[in-house]
Structures are given as C-alpha cells and as structure tokens.
Amino acid sequence: MSVDVPSRRDIIVDNKSILLPAVAGLSQFSTVDYPGHLCAVIYTQGCPCRCRYCHNTSLQPGQGSSVMSWSTVMGWLATRKGLLDAVAFCGGEPTVHKSLLLAIKQVKTLGFNVALHTSGLYPHNFANLLPYLDWVGFDVKSPFAHYPDITRVPGSGGKVKESLERMLSSNISYEIRTTIHNTILSSADLVMMAHELQMIGVSRWVLQRFNKAGCADLELIAGHTEIERDLVARLRINVPNILVR
After folding, report:
1. Does the pLDDT value for residue 4 go beyond 50?
2. What b/e string do you get for 219-234 counting C-beta neighbours within 10 Å, with b at 16 or more?
3. Which of 197, 185, 176, 177 is nearest to 225 (CA)?
4. Which has the minimum average pLDDT: 62-71, 141-150, 158-167?
5. Which of 117, 100, 101, 121 lies closest to 163, judged by CA?
6. Three-class secondary structure of residue 199 per DSSP
7. Domain map of the chain by residue range?
8. Greatest CA separation for the chain
9. CA separation for the pair 72, 78 (Å, rounded)
10. What is the number of alpha carbons within 13 Å of residue 54 lying toward its C-beta?
11. What is the pLDDT of residues 201-233, one digit of tens each?
12. Residue 100, SS3?
C-alpha cells in the first residue's frame, strides 16, 4: 500500500513514473493573478533568473522539495469546483519544468481555466503549453539585448523574444508587464522597449512600480520607482494601451 507523503511529486502515466514540478506553495484564493477571475495559485520551485528586484528568492533554487504532494493539490482542487474559476501557475519560473504540461492537463480535467505567469525563458516548453492555457502574464524585463544585465542568464533576451512571438501568434489573452525602477531601467531603456514591443505586435503594456516587499536589495528599496507622465506619453506613441500601476 502506497502512502501519500508531502514531498511526493511523481505520478504513473503509461506505466512510467513522471516527476511533476515541485509545489512550493498554494494560495487558495486570488483575484489578481488572473484578471477578472477568482483563482487558486500554485507556486512552482525553481528559476534560473537572479533579478535584483525578485520578491520570491526562496523559489529560485531548482532542488527545493514540495510542500505538498501533487495528489493532495488535485484532491483539494476537486473540492473547489464551482467555487473557483481558474488555477494560475506562478514561480519561480514554471516553464523550467517540462512536466508542467501534464500538471496543466490534469487541472483542465477538473474544468478549470488555467493561467500562467512566465518570463518566457524556455520558448519550446512554453510553445507546448500554449494550446492548454487561457491567459498568460508575461514579464518583459528590459530591452532584449540588455537581458543578461537583469537576469544574469546569457542569451536570455533572444529566448524571451521568441516566446513573445509565439504567444502573440497564438491569439491567447495576455498581459505584458515590466517592473519599473530607475536604478534598473532608464528612460532610454523604456523607449527602446516600446519600439521593440511595437515591432513584434504588442499593443498592451503594463508598467508596474517596483514593490519592495520580499526584496533584499537595499539600493533598490531606497531608490526611485516613479515614471513620469511625459515619458508614458512618449511610450504610447509605440504602444498605445499602457497602464501604470
């Protein structure tokens, strides 16, 4: 007789053991992680980026253990049918896990819509997920050529651009957002980003002020996070629909 333990992540599919993403946390109720929907949020362990403004640094290591088994998550979700609209996968970076597709398929069998928050660093994995997603929250961190300065991941800008292009060609609902901090992104950076986003077909862009909660970088915490109205007007020449929050 098998016993379900909190760290158990594997399930049997076609007589093979499949290791699902480590569940680093579960938020039972959210109104902000999938706009217009009431959803649960599953946080996955692991992210290759080392962004200075990260507020979930505990989720960066790829070898963290699950706080609950996948069967426990699915069992709980089954009790939420009719009460929640959707399930959102966040991280960390969920697409680092190839087995995320299987997890999403299982959630879909319960009748939930599925949202994904991603930085787009794994375009092939992301492309495989797109047919099963209902909404994507996509982080665009900087001009593509400057990505390694933010993420500390060589070549990350090209991968993100590829993921963006795949997403835009899929016609899925999405939100593209950028974290604003004057220490990290200059006005010139934002103007360059607006041009790059326009060139690949982006018409909606959220500029979100840096949130110091969970951030350990003292320079950023003490810094300036506002964006001038004149600059926003300039950015709207390229991307007409911009929201600052």
Report:
1. no
2. ebeeeebebeeebeee
3. 185
4. 62-71
5. 121
6. helix
7. 10-244
8. 66
9. 10
10. 19
11. 999 999 999 888 888 778 888 887 888 999 999
12. helix
Residue for token digits 């840096």?
210
Does domain 10-244 fall under CATH 3.40.50.620? My reply is no
Alpha helices in the chain (DSSP H): 70-78, 100-109, 123-129, 147-151, 156-170, 187-199, 218-222, 229-235
pLDDT tens digit string along 27-66?
A: 999 999 999 999 999 999 999 999 988 888 888 887 666 7
- Contact residues for 21 (Cβ-Cβ < 8 A; gap 6+): 9, 44, 45, 46, 94, 97, 99, 100, 103
Distance CA 118, CA 80 (A): 25
Mean pLDDT over the full length of the chain: 90
Residue whose token pair is 């599925």: 114
